[in-house]
Amino acid sequence: MTDANNMIREAIDPEEEAAFLDAIQKWIDKEVKPVVQKYDHDDVWPAEIVQQMTEMGLFGATIGTQYGGLGLPAVTYAKIVALISSYWMAITGIFNSHLIMACAVERFGTEAQRHLWLPKFASGEIRGGLALTEPNAGTDLQSIRTTAVRDGNEYVINGSKTWISNGINGSCFALLVKTDAKADPRYKGMSLMIAPKGDGFTTGKKFKKLGYNAIDSTELMFENYRIPVDNLIGGIEGQGFFQATGGLELGRINVAARGVGLSEGALRLATEYAQLRESMGKPICEHQAIQLKIGEMVTRARAARLLTFDAAEVYDRGERCDLQAGMAKYFASEAAVANSQEAMRVFGGYSYSKEYDIERLYRDSMLMCIGEGTNEMQRIIISKQWVKQNPA
Ligand SMILES: Cc1cc2nc3c(=O)[nH]c(=O)nc-3n(C[C@H](O)[C@H](O)[C@H](O)COP(=O)(O)OP(=O)(O)OC[C@H]3O[C@@H](n4cnc5c(N)ncnc54)[C@H](O)[C@@H]3O)c2cc1C
């Protein structure tokens, strides 16, 4: 494995971090809140929001300053993602999937690859995502069928990917392929490539989804699509499975942070509504049934936040954090589902109205249990890591 870059990140000055989060909150209040329902209900790509996120530097949030990024530690990044997700989770997917692609290049790429691609990723000039899943292979990534066959100084790629976030609006993807379809074990034949759109690379239609609207999810098709061998991340074949899964804990921290945001957003909406809505002559927050719900929701949201920052701190120290990131992703995503469901009950019949935001959080939250490794797999990973660290 080529883990060329030192990814240790110092915590930033607390005042600087607070000022950054304050600027994000002001942007949410002014630009995001007024448009979220329209974009979400109409399922339309939010071009001006993406432009504003580009101007704020979010497409380079975790990319090193030497490449033009903000170089933020994972802890600050998680706070930003949680804050935005507490109002509109889907827009964080537009820069998060992109940053996971960038992370693969920064962490595992050659020096030439880092200097060529990262400045363009950081500025948002090139935006994209991560292309792993195929119609027959989601959890079982080793079953992918997309192949890359070397032909001189190029790879010829054939196959297809599905469910790829930013697939239509993005222009470049970290693409998982088989460079040796006969390898045993299978993961040794897998490689990760930097795949910009070009001849032979086409996309399907935007999928219609339960939630996570506005951002596009689609199929990517490759038919004799050629890229230079220089686009093989790290320059050595057979490293892709590790680079795409075990190496990218940042992806799990990012999904955990989205779960934190959804949990806290649902709590905020329920807390406000429970004080304004009256029944039997008093605000519903004074009924014990609602107090029990809010008490559980506060606790879950807080626990999700602490687990997520714990994982982010380990990541920032440059240490492997499979166990911590898995626990954070698992717990925070389940907290998002539980809190949004409980908030629906607090809102009673009005939860079912499209005029209230809570229905969006309810629809969006379930995705957190699926993306970046399903929660079934997370618990298996947590258990394996735990037993490994605690030999009898
Ligand atoms: C909105 C959305 C956006 C997405 N964006 C992206 C993206 O940008 N890039 C990308 O590459 N993919 C993306 N995905 C795909 C996502 O990562 C996969 O859906 C996910 O990995 C699960 O794979 P699957 O859907 O094939 O489910 P399956 O793998 O078929 O799993 C079905 C069920 O079986 C369980 N299961 C499967 N195998 C095991 C096992 N060995 N042990 C225990 N349980 C198991 C799973 O936990 C799950 O409950 C996205 C998906 C969605 C819905």
Automatic annotation (TrEMBL):
Residues 130-224 form the Acyl-CoA oxidase/dehydrogenase middle domain. Pfam families: Acyl-CoA_dh_1, Acyl-CoA_dh_M, Acyl-CoA_dh_N. Its cofactor is FAD. The lineage of its organism: Bacteria, Pseudomonadati, Pseudomonadota, Alphaproteobacteria, Sphingomonadales. The keyword Glycoprotein does not apply. This is Acyl-CoA dehydrogenase. Belongs to the acyl-CoA dehydrogenase family. InterPro entries: Acyl-CoA_DH_CS, Acyl-CoA_Oxase/DH_mid-dom, Acyl-CoA_Oxase/DH_mid-dom_sf, AcylCo_DH-like_C, AcylCo_DH/oxidase_C, AcylCoA_DH/ox_N, AcylCoA_DH/ox_N_sf, AcylCoA_DH/oxidase_NM_dom_sf.
